[in-house]
Amino acid sequence: MKINFLLSCAFLIPYVVFFICCGIPVFFLETALGQFTSEGGITCWRKVCPLFEGIGYATQVIEAHLNVYYIIILAWAIFYLFNCFTTELPWATCGHEWNTENCVEFQKLNMSNCSPISLQNATSPVMEFWERRVLAISDGIEHIGNLRWELALCLLAAWTICYFCIWKGTKSTGKVVYVTATFPYIMLMILLIRGVTLPGASEGIKFYLYPDISRLSDPQVWVDAGTQIFFSYAICLGCLTALGSYNNYNNNCYSTTSGFMAYEQGVPIAEVAESGPGLAFIAYPKAVTMMPLSPLWATLFFMMLIFLGLDSQFVCVESLVTAVVDMYPKIFRRGYRRELLILGLSIVSYFIGLIMLTEGGMYVFQLFDSYAASGMCLLFVAIFECVCIGWVYGSNRFYDNIEDMIGYKPLSLIKWCWMVLTPGICAVSIEYLSNLF
């Protein structure tokens, strides 16, 4: 029910409110701060207000957790990609060694020969492929089970690709994203065209356009919208500060912020992040099986998923590396030490991530996904960032710094968001989340 509402039109109302009142102000704050100080996610706070340097450490701790678990999605996608090179997709039919007697191909089902009891216990081949072939999922987190070596090799491939894409810094990454950021749009357009031509598509469109507005009275909906904004745009993770530090001092970070956030609206990362792996590895693969030449479209779809994941992983790793290098420039700005630092972080993150590729690893992944880099921790960081810049360092003073960089002052509304609106909304959201536990 929660996923359906997130995909409905009514969700856009709280989403847009948080986007304007929290997303844009904090996004601009972090980008401008990185450009002004030319420092990474930790040392930038040391320059403007040493008392709040802990904000930087908090963002990098979150980033370190994110580096470990986010790339697991890439490992799953690579596993699916390898299974696409066949004449018939393995999750399209039953009859495989991992399928159970309850597996039912619903598109071939003869309803006249089925009892309600048998249908109640039925599972789809795409679900069984995900749970029994890919994850081999156990009964609970207390049963970690064996390591899935196929997934471990896929994770190794993901980290290897990621390393060689960023080991030379933003110059190498910038060339890679020309492909990884363009191809997904083509694939998404194809899926959109196919989606609207499927039977029942009109019902889905009606659901989107005529949602249940009464759900807006639920505080959880507003909290979901807020955390969704923060995670979707990598706010409060130190990423934007690190990327901003590579800008020229006089780069117009104000217009850049607007352009980037408009660009990001074209990719449904919000849907994938909020609804969990099920949407990417169950719903979409099922839809692909209904298309002609399904192995081809499945291959293209998982390539798209890998490209989208790599883009996000690039930024995560680059942010952490930039923070460490800027803290110890005399050590890591010599020779190939930066490359060795990236290699070390990749190896450590790889071995930590292996626990999520065990039979009980999905439960560990869900813990990381729910508590490590979303929700309350991001809201706390946003509050302290706004308090530091808006009140301690001074919003007027920071506006003067921005004017010195871009030649004019941004809208005054953003300044008031830093001082009052953004921390206030985040505090209310935290209060609500606290009452849930």
Automatic annotation (TrEMBL):
Chain ranges passing through the membrane: 5-28, 68-86, 176-200, 340-365, 371-393, 413-433
Residues bound to Na(+): 232, 308, 311-312
Domain of life: Eukaryota
Disulfides per UniProt: 94-103
Main location: membrane
Location in the cell: Membrane
Topology in membrane: Multi-pass membrane protein
Signal peptide (residue range): none
Species the sequence originates in: Pavo cristatus
Single GO term (MF): metal ion binding
UniProt-listed InterPro entries: Na/ntran_symport, SNS_sf
Database matches in Pfam families: SNF
Keywords: Disulfide bond, Membrane, Metal-binding, Sodium, Transmembrane, Transmembrane helix, Transport
Keyword Transmembrane helix: yes
Full protein name: Solute carrier family 6 member 11
A GO cellular component annotation in the UniProt record: cell projection
